[in-house]
Amino acid sequence: MTTKSSAQNTSIPPLVIRSAIVASLGGLLFGFDTAVISGAEEKLTELYALSSLGEGMIVAIATIGTICGAIVAGNLADRFGRKPILFWIGVLFGVGALATALAPLPALVTGADGTVSASSSFPITFFMVFRFLGGVGVGLSSVVAPIYTAEIAPARVRGRLVGLVQFNIVFGILLAYASNAVIREIAHEETAWRWMLGVMAVPAVFFLVFLATVPETPRWLLAHGQEERAVKISERLTATQAESHEQIDEIKAQIAEDAAGGKVAFFTRRYRKVILMAFCIAMFNQLSGINAILYYAPKVMKLAGGAAVLGDAFPYIGSVIVGLMNLIATMAALTVIDKIGRRQLMIVGSIGYLVSLGFLAGMMFAYEGGWFEEGSAAPVWLILLGLLGFIASHAFGQGSVIWVFISEIFPNRVRARGQSLGSLTHWVFAFITTYAFPVLTDKLGGGYAFGIFFLAMVGQLFWVLKVMPETKGIPLEEMEEKLGLTND
What we know:
mainly alpha, Growth Hormone, Chain: A, two-stranded antiparallel sheet, 2 strands, disordered N terminus
């Protein structure tokens, strides 16, 4: 809060930190689920006799679940509370992990023309259903975890605390890559994919245990008539009792204003500006190709001959290196997001996108065009260098900003619906890029795929420079006025 009493005490109460960390563990599950399939998809393609379209679908089915989760997350969080939905997120991740790990396999049949197919559709259907449910957990997490953290965090550190969600997303990605690489070395080849998928049940259990130690948000409690609980929790979430009183009074005033206005329509001219902002930042996030590359990181390495030149383990080790760069760049961004702001990070990240994607497209065209000597390791290392530049640009820009920005720009009365819209947009475009990537690389080659992502990032840079506002340090209750929504 930007008040005298809160400004005089800059300490962050322990409960705020603990609550933000626990909520951000939903992001760790989110990231783990996003990347873990990268280690299993090649074996799954073989075991289920999938075409390139089938390969795309077995990976992308989770994003369909994510879309569904994002659609309902805002309403569920408003109706039942932020904390109960976080609980069900943990359940969905745990069940999805165990069920996909235990999925049955079909018998394979070789046709007269030599093509191999599955004898039954039940095994792949079973796998996809539970992969879908895990995706629902991702969709819910991408909406509810940032909302929860934004509502318990003081404005002066909101960017860093909401950014913990993104930190744990990339930490989860790194853990998934690392566990895939380790499991591939120690588990039997035929069952390694089961361990890769099933291990996510472990952090899901820890998340559920730690969730019991954090409270519901005062904003949700006050909105549902539970003032006594809201006041007690607010006193624990603020540095001074005066700050707590100010927080409660501001929330009450906002709720009263919302009630006087009646039920608020979301898709109206008044919210057009922030709706378009949320849509654009989420769309551009995925048109960078980030999820396609995260899902298919080993495949990208193999496209440049990584396995043939440096051994079968290299694509998985390279993925770990990419995940580590993701984590380092995210940590760097979170240290400055509340100092230099969201917009500056987006500018730096957008320029980095253009440099790295242009380089990757050029390298893939050169490799596919036979410009390198056969057996040369040079294209492999150059592609890895390009991927590291790409992931650093994403993590320092879009990756660290998107969920913070969307959680901030919507007024309190439509924040959950706004977060759902942003998440829904994000995952619709994630499905498109994830499903299309193996088909594009199979039919056109990696150069064209990265070229398409490059062109999309030209559009993002233009949008950031011309449209995107700065939101750092603005209390949520004042955001509507700062963005000029009250005058629309």
